[in-house]
Design brief:
There is one protein chain. It contains two helices and 13 strands, in the order ββαβββαββββββββ. By secondary structure, the protein is an alpha+beta fold. The protein is globular, with a radius of gyration of 16 Å. It binds N-(carboxycarbonyl)-S-(3-nitrobenzyl)-L-cysteine (MD5) and fe (iii) ion.
Amino acid sequence: GREQIGPQSFVLRGFALPYADALLQGVDAVAAQSPFRHMQTPGGYTMSVALTNCGTRGWTSDAQGYRYTRIDPLSGQPWPDLPEAFLRLAQAAAADAGFSGFTPDACLVNRYEPGARLSLHQDKNERDYNAPIVSVSLGMPALFLFGGHARTDPAARVALLHGDVVVWGGVDRLRYHGVMPMKDTPHSRLGSQRINFTLRKAG
Ligand code: MD5
Ligand code: FE
């Protein structure tokens, strides 16, 4: 089913389930080339979420700030190619939510272990806010926080489960959002981890 959580945001429950095997193979292939790592924030903290990227651009954080790069600073090589299954899923989900012709060039892959969280933030490092962002959740369930356009606006809580896909676009694209600290509710396939990857048009 398709749940509307904002004027231009939709949860597509279970949309990724038919692709799950291919998606997890893709995550493994990406991580073999560009391993998951805990990045530093500009404020001097270490992120509790581990991340990697694929596509022609990848999101990175260090003492200098947040930005997209073509080279993985850990491997010194370009980020791995976007797996075919990621692209097909993203385009199908975007079209389902009313955004046809989505051409992502970046994919940020987050890995959550118990206790990991993502504090409220906006995604503002992409060049073009007209393109949507497609998010795919695999493994342990998460409580997603969906806020407003001001940090202090109240946030709705949305449970995101294995196989759920969310599409954010238009007026919802710059809303504050985050992920509550992860509980340890092991998943049959992925154990005590949650993988979330987001397809974006960054360049
Ligand atoms: C996650 N990741 O569950 C989330 C899913 C991130 C991040 O937030 O930046 O890696 S993506 C949620 C998202 C993206 C873009 C816009 C909005 C939400 N939004 O307007 O609420 O690991
Ligand atoms: Fe975000």
